[in-house]
Amino acid sequence: MKTASNRKQSEPAGVREARSSAPASAKAVKASSKRAANDRTLPLNPDAPEDIRDAVSRLKRERIIATAVELFYNNGLSNTTLEAVADQMKVTKPFIYAHFKSKSELLAEICSRGIRASLDALNRVVATQGTASEKLQSLARDFMFAVLSNQAHIAIYNREEKHLSPEDSEAINEMRREFDRKFCALLEEGVATGEFVVDDVHIASLAIGGIVSWSYVWYRPNGRLSPAETADQVADLVMAMVQAKSVKRRRAKTAG
After folding, report:
1. pLDDT digit string (tens) for 86-138?
2. Measured between alpha carbons, how far is 230 from 224 in angstroms, rounded to an integer?
3. How far lies 81's CA from each of 40, 72, 149, 157, in Å?
4. Which pTM does this prediction carry?
5. Are 225 and 233 in contact (CB under 8 A)?
6. Nearest to residue 110, comparing CAs of 56, 168, 57?
7. pLDDT, tens digit, for every residue of 192-232?
8. How far, in Å, CA of 163 to CA of 78, rounded?
9. Dihedrals φ, ψ of 90, to 5°?
10. Contacts (Cβ under 8 Å, ≥6 apart) of 62
11. Which residues make Cβ contacts (< 8 Å) with residue 244, sequence separation at least 6?
């Protein structure tokens, strides 16, 4: 299968923020880890405004996650301890425990990132005004961005899902079921208005979801197409699958 490239292209602001908070490569993760090490000696000022303290705490939490993603992805969950995460960040284990009670809790947060980002994208789209076709086209693109922005997280989930606690596994599965319900509802809306031609909405939703979700395996940041170009092309394929009639499909432009 052809792969895609990281040629710079404009992306929605929300997508840029999501991509900046999720490591697209081991190099990005390492850079985030180095920044975390620089902050390790800076205690929170108890007199600082609460929003500043919360922001600093969130930043530290995200850097722990970034480092854990790198180690879980490259070495596997079983071969990575919280001590190894702390050593990679050049901090002590209590620094980790201040934000995550256990490796299982850290794994659950990592594994939930991909589906949470996809569900957030779906909720944003269905809340907008527009036809079912317009919403589906936007969703297909944003869904693709959510997957590409969380490649390593999704890979870890598919590889380490068996290590999740029953409670964490059920919480993630509930988000997946919510996504499926809302996605089916969007397709049913398009069928009801005559915009889509779909014989089995449930099968169509699973097929589309599978195509987009599987991109975490084949997409390469240094390939032929940028994330934006890839998302546009996949959106075209999704619209063709439902035989959408009212939206002119966009074609990603590639450099000559």
Report:
1. 999 999 999 999 999 999 999 999 999 999 999 999 999 999 999 999 999 99
2. 9
3. 19, 9, 25, 17
4. 0.74
5. yes
6. 168
7. 999 999 999 999 999 999 999 999 999 998 889 999 999 99
8. 9
9. 60, 45
10. 21, 32
11. 133, 136, 137, 190, 195, 196
96 Cβ partners below 8 Å, 6+ apart? 64, 82, 85, 86, 106
Measured distance CA(42)–CA(37) in Å, rounded = 10
